[in-house]
Every structure is written in C-alpha cells, then in structure tokens.
Write a structure and sequence with these properties.
Length: 73
C-alpha cells in the first residue's frame, strides 16, 4: 500500500502542477509531452483522477476516526 500511496501522491502533484500551468499560462504540460488527447495523455489524466479517488480513502477514514482537529483550526 505504501508504494501505491507514494505513486498516487506523485501523480496528484503532477496533476496539480499541470493545472497550475494551465491556469497561469494556458499551457498544458501533459498535452505538450504526450500530445493533445492522445492515448498516453488520456492515461495520465485517468491515473491522476484515480489517484485523487484513492487519496479520498484516508481522508474519509480520518473523519470516521475523529481525526478532524486540524480542520477546526
């Protein structure tokens, strides 16, 4: 599970940086590297989305376990 978490966090960072570039400079790095909506770029986008869903699991667990003190400050 540790490897999946690390890979998903890296993908989320890549996705976040890509969206930052899109918002700031109208530049899609994934599309520039892999082509606009090619199979490879679509795979990257799907993996970033799946990583976000995967990272929802620990967030939901933290709510279930009452670990919301950081959210109240």
């Amino acid at each position: 599970m540790r490897t999946i978490n690390i890979v998903s966090l890296i993908l989320l960072i890549v996705g976040g940086l890509n969206w930052g570039l899109v918002g700031l400079f109208d530049f899609d790095l994934v599309a520039a590297i892999f082509g606009r909506m090619t199979l490879l770029s679509r795979i990257v986008y799907i993996l970033v989305g799946a990583s976000a869903v995967w990272q929802l699991i620990p967030l939901i667990r933290s709510f279930d376990e009452g670990e919301t003190t950081a959210l109240r400050h």
